[in-house]
Amino acid sequence: MRKVTWLAIFMSVILLAGFLNGTHASSTLQGKVTETMDSGGYTYVNLETDGKKTWVAIPKTKVDVGQVIAFQPGMEMTGFESKSLNRTFESITFSAGIAGESAGSEKKPAVSGKTETAQSKPVKVEKATGPDAYTIAELYGKLADLDKKNIIVRGKVVKFSANIMGKNWIHVQDGSGDPAKGTNDIIITSQEILEVGDTATFQGTLYRDKDFGSGYKYAAIVEEASVKK
């Protein structure tokens, strides 16, 4: 059985917290990469901003020296000892990953632990066909009837977070619903790897008021979905 370290658990909590409610302990970190190393499934990056250097740790991601990059807000730790690096960091911020697309970086497929987010653009996707097919607005409107039922929905991936709690978390929109009420976006979990901008058809089980504990509760979520592009 694979050994789970406290660091892996800690990073999973940060990733989940950032994905579910978007709150973080510090502001976005941005600067030029002066040093980077991979160890223990994580990438350690030394960022320089206005002459000041800051260490950031993210799930393993390709980062190049000289690249100007921004990371999602994270949680700062002081006196952190990395046993895999045999090194103690005076201060290091643990982040869920790259914040959107950074200057000098090229678009890459989403990888384990990495979060990709689409820029704000109008979305319009044709509804899937079949007796179990619904738009996202219809899923929210019929939650009471569709709870724990098999559904099919087609939409565009606007956010993708990989390998959190053993599954991938996908924000999908199709142009229906009300952004002010949050009924324009639904979260789908799956084992499939997708990229932000992909349009696909998802088939899974819809759950109403799904509670993952620690205050993280969804009015609607589609679980264990299969994907067809």
Segments where pLDDT lies below 50 for 5+ residues? 1-6, 17-26, 100-114
Most strands sheet: 6 strands, mixed
How does the helix and strand content classify structurally? mainly beta
**Going across the major beta sheet, what is the strand order?**
4-1-2-3-6-5
The shape, in one word, is elongated
In short:
With 229 residues, the chain is mainly beta.
Sequence-ordered SSE layout with sheet pairings:
Blueprint: H1 6-21, E1 29-39, E2 42-49, E3 52-59, E4 68-71, E5 74-82, E6 87-95, E7 115-117, H2 136-141, H3 143-146, E8 149-164, E9 167-173, E10 186-190, E11 199-211, E12 217-228
Parallel strand pairs: 3-6, 10-12
Antiparallel strand pairs: 1-2, 1-4, 2-3, 5-6, 7-8, 8-9, 8-11, 9-10, 11-12
Question: What does this 3D model show about the protein?
Answer:
With 229 residues, this protein is mainly beta. It has 2 domains: 6-104, Nucleic acid-binding proteins (OB fold (Dihydrolipoamide Acetyltransferase, E2P)), CATH 2.40.50.140; 136-228, Nucleic acid-binding proteins (OB fold (Dihydrolipoamide Acetyltransferase, E2P), Beta Barrel), CATH 2.40.50.140. It has helices spanning 6-21, 136-141, 143-146; strands at residues 29-39, 42-49, 52-59, 68-71, 74-82, 87-95, 115-117, 149-164, 167-173, 186-190, 199-211, 217-228. It has a 6-stranded mixed β-sheet with strand order 4-1-2-3-6-5. Strands 8-9-10-12-11 form a 5-stranded mixed β-barrel. A hairpin with a 2-residue loop joins strand 8 (149-164) and strand 9 (167-173). It is elongated, with a radius of gyration of 19 Å. The relative contact order is 0.13. Residues 1-6, 17-26 and 100-114 have low confidence and may be disordered.
